[in-house]
């Protein structure tokens, strides 16, 4: 299925033919975005994703520029299981102090293939740049994309990002889950925001937020990737170290699937 784009205007989602989803401006321009999964139960956690986008927008918006979101959910162009990307897009490089009113776009795409067993990953040598912390726009997205492409050229599936002081951040496009002494932790802190899926695990009492460091990898019993599109993906190998597949993965993924498909 080719990507399709709608634009929010006059209280409805209207087909938008003037945007090229594959273009650099759409993918790497100044933006705030949330990527979601749709199943038989609709778009999973739409309101929570929208809240993340709204909070990021409020931090960037010019005074008096408002984002009207109240009726966005009423006429979503839903059609089968697929991936959705809600995106605020405007001209600029993402470094302006305040942002003008954006275009509000909705991109429909194909869901990724399920992961059969787990992923191999690498720890990135280059630390996150200072301007990157907490950002989901422009240069930050492009930087993560470049890091992931570089990792995949070595045969890895994902890359683990770190700060210069040794703290761990996240995977390129998902939160880091780590089990230490039988307890699951999600990397979180002042510079690391837990995503909607990680927050879902936290609300169920399954993980706890923690500032994780490179040194914690030595005592880690299991590692995982998680986001709102894939759910949980076991990380079987990081560099030369291997990790087991643990029972929690199947339980979490099963519960996630039930919610996506309206059975929970």
What is the fold's blueprint, element by element?
Layout: E1 4-9, E2 12-15, H1 24-28, E3 30-39, E4 42-43, H2 46-60, E5 82-90, E6 103-109, E7 119-123, H3 138-153, E8 158-162, E9 168-171, E10 175-180, E11 183-187, H4 196-203, E12 208-210, E13 222-227, E14 231-238, E15 241-242, H5 248-260
Parallel strand pairs: 7-8, 7-14, 11-12
Antiparallel strand pairs: 1-2, 1-6, 3-4, 3-5, 5-6, 8-9, 10-11, 10-13, 13-14, 14-15
What are the defining features of this structure?
single chain; about 260 residues; alpha+beta; D-amino Acid Aminotransferase, Chain A, domain 1; D-amino Acid Aminotransferase, Chain A, domain 2; nine-stranded mixed beta sheet; six-stranded antiparallel beta sheet; 5 helices; 15 strands
Structure description:
It is a single chain. Strands 7, 8, 9, 10, 11, 12, 13, 14 and 15 form a 9-stranded mixed sheet that branches. The chain starts with a strand and ends with a helix. It is α+β, with helices and mostly antiparallel strands and 264 residues long. Residues 93-97 have low confidence and may be disordered. The protein is globular, with a radius of gyration of 18 Å. The longest helix has 16 residues, at 138-153. A hairpin with a 5-residue loop joins strand 8 (158-162) and strand 9 (168-171). The chain contains 5 helices and 15 strands. The chain folds into 2 domains: 4-109, Aminotransferase class 4, branched-chain amino acid transferase, N-terminal domain (D-amino Acid Aminotransferase, Chain A, domain 1, 2-Layer Sandwich), CATH 3.30.470; 119-260, D-amino Acid Aminotransferase, Chain A, domain 2 (Alpha-Beta Barrel), CATH 3.20.10.
